[in-house]
Design brief:
Rossmann fold, 10 strands, two-stranded antiparallel ribbon, globular
């Protein structure tokens, strides 16, 4: 847990495609930059324990993705991979972070892996936690559907979300219990911290999650599997692919996805699901520290 005697991060704003986006900075600006990218429907303070463990040797920054945390929501409710990629590119460019090291989870992993393929020279090392997307079997099932079917599903999803108001919880305790239901591996202390940092209080005193409901919609189309494989193959830096053995993501070494990378190491964690950096935090930090090694000197 983050030490009470250690100052927390400072909040900052940057702009991307006219959106006001938020990130936190854990200090130590003279050290090499380490970016932490959260997953879908999550927020940057999800990384507090990781940041506290690594801030002594790294300049840790953690952004809120557009539509998440304290970043602005997209006015048209559209959340594309291209938009997420541009936001990351802008943060790295504006803050002059390249070459950076990145640790990313889930959706953040999707973004980081593609960014690393577009700009191989901008990454020193990369850790992707369940960041490869659905298992090949699931992707094949989706690909078997026509674009008309996928567009129709997306349109119906958008209509449903347009009429869906953010859920209101009578108290923090109610939101906290929902967080525990989502991931039974979380300790009460972890779940409470993630809840407190992940909700806003409404004018009537109730609480709602910070993320935009529109981020729930699965996009009707994306980069082709061929293009994604091409980008993964361009990643020049050492890459660590972590997966939880209790998740549905699958073992990238066994299903062949790891073979698309030049310098990938695959590690699966027992007793961990999709949020393995919470489920097995001590083991996660040990593995990451070993992989990152001593930070490069500037």
């Amino acid at each position: 847990m983050v030490s009470e005697g250690t100052p927390g991060p400072t909040s900052h704003t940057y702009f991307s495609q006219r959106l006001r986006l938020h990130y936190v900075d854990w200090g130590n600006p003279g050290a090499p930059p380490l970016l932490l990218l959260h997953g879908g429907r999550d927020h940057c303070r999800n990384w507090d324990w990781t940041a506290a463990a690594l801030r002594d040797a790294w300049h840790v920054l953690a952004p809120d993705l557009r539509g998440h945390g304290d970043s602005q929501w997209s006015p048209d409710g559209s959340y594309t991979m291209a938009g997420y990629l541009y936001d990351l590119a802008q943060l790295v460019h504006q803050q002059r972070l390249a070459p950076a090291t990145i640790i990313a989870h889930s959706l953040g992993g999707h973004i980081a892996l593609r960014y690393a393929g577009i700009y191989p020279e901008h990454l020193a090392k990369l850790v992707a936690i369940e960041g490869l997307g659905p298992a090949p079997r699931v992707l094949a099932e989706r690909a078997a559907r026509t674009i008309a079917e996928r567009m129709d599903e997306w349109i119906r999803d958008q209509r449903g979300l347009a009429g869906r108001l953010p859920r209101r919880y009578p108290s923090i305790e109610d939101a906290f219990r929902r967080m525990q239901e989502e991931n039974p591996h979380l300790s009460a202390e972890q779940a409470r911290h993630l809840t407190v940092q992940g909700v806003n209080q409404n004018e009537d005193g109730t609480y709602s999650w910070k993320f935009d409901n529109y981020v729930r919609a699965w996009p009707p189309y994306d980069m082709s599997r061929r293009d994604i494989a091409f980008l993964w193959g361009r990643i020049a830096c050492p890459t660590l692919l972590l997966w939880g053995k209790e998740s549905e993501a699958g073992d990238p070494a066994a299903d062949g996805r790891a073979q698309l990378f030049r310098r990938a190491t695959v590690v699966g964690l027992d007793g961990a699901g999709h949020w393995l950096h919470h489920d097995r935090f001590t083991e996660f930090v040990r593995i990451v520290r070993e992989f990152l090694g001593a930070p490069p000197r500037s």
